[in-house]
Amino acid sequence: MSVSLIFMLITIPGNLIVVLVVLLDPHKEFRKPFTLLILNLAVTDLIVGGIAEPLSVMIHYREARKMSIPMTWLSQTAYFLCCTASLLSLAVLTVDRYLAITLPMWYRVNVSLLRVGFASVAIWVLSICFTSIFFFMDFVTYAFIFGNIALFCAVFIVIFAYVRIFRTLKTSTENSAQLVAGASEAAKAHARAQNAENKLTRTYMLMVLAFLFSYLPTTVMIYLMNLCTVCSCELIHWFRDFQFIFVVFNSLVNPFLYAIRLQNFRKAIKTIFKRLSCCSDNRVEPQNEIQVTAAESGHHQVHEAAKASRTDGA
Q1: Half-sphere exposure at residue 186, Cβ-oriented, CA atoms within 13 angstroms
Q2: Which SUPFAM superfamilies does this one have (predicted)?
Q3: N or C, which end of the chain is more exposed by having fewer CB within 10 Å?
């Protein structure tokens, strides 16, 4: 319970900041297909922190006190929905990065915010459809099926990312370095744009590794839940809790990957907090001015009254 509570207190503000940074976009740097997909993933992680984790805290609290547990289905549905959306978002991010690195000119012409927006909607529609299967089977069986699919997809994405994306990325970086040495301004601008895409791709690859490291132990726990015939009910509950912790840890760590790897994210966060602090200062200053004016007015009235009394006495 305490672990879920700690994760919730970090996951919610972390992903909320990512959502605000992309939506407010103080420096107009985030109107890109990749960033829209990051926003979609942050919304998924925010649902994990705002629904799945609080319900997990409630369930563990009531379990510890031997109380009835209402709305278990809601926690499990939110959990599977967000897991599916995360997996599909990662798959779409893989396609996005592959096109951006291997076909940069085609990518800039054809991959628009509108098309990525449709892809984001499709992610949620498919996630809802897949999660609805959960209502026709028990938690352990569905978790077993999902865990196998998730692990297979994650391993495939990692292999594909390394073989097709990372090698192309390495080659394009070397070519850009040679090109900039004696190139025109237009060629240098193209090289800078490609270097920016390369940096986004490296961030994406860290996200893929974080996803794999979260889901690999999760799948092990799910296998133990299904195949361990000598495990007690208490041990099965421990496996259930650990597989949940590993999955929600991925939602916790993603915002830190963006902030650590992407300088424009850090710059936007600083700008937003500066604006918020300036707004709070501006609200305080008028109140102080009113108080000072009222005090000066009071002193003036006292002074006038004293002056009038001296005149009457004379």
Answers
A1: 0
A2: Family A G protein-coupled receptor-like
A3: C
DSSP result, 196-244: HHHHHHHHHHHHHHHHHHHHHHHHHHHHHHHH-SS--HHHHHHHHHHHH
The token pair at 149 is 């699919």
Query: Which of 81-95, 207-221, 283-297 has the least mean pLDDT?
Result: 283-297
- Cβ–Cβ under 8 Å, residues 15 and 251: yes
pLDDT one-digit tens code per residue, 178-233 = 555 555 666 666 666 667 777 777 887 888 888 888 888 888 888 888 888 888 88
Task: Record the tokens describing residue 159, joined without a space.
Answer: 């292999």
Distance CA 83, CA 45 (A): 9
Report residue 281's pLDDT band, with 50, 70 and 90 as the boundaries. low
Q: Token digits for 193?
A: 């744009």
Sketch out the chain's domains with CATH numbers: 1-268 (1.20.1070.10)
Give pLDDT tens digits for 7-38.
Answer: 888 999 999 998 999 898 888 888 888 889 99
Residue 252 contacts residue 8 (beta carbons within 8 Å): no
The CA–CA distances, whole Å, from 169 to 165, 198, 209 equal: 6, 6, 17
Among 216, 256, 203, residue whose Cα is nearest residue 97 = 203
Residue 128 CA, chain-centre distance (Å), reads: 19
Question: What is the C-alpha separation between 6 and 50, in angstroms, rounded?
Answer: 13
Q: Is the pTM of this model over 0.85?
A: no
Nearest-CA neighbor of 85 among 268, 254, 265, 242?
A: 254
φ and ψ at residue 74, rounded to 5 degrees: -70, -45
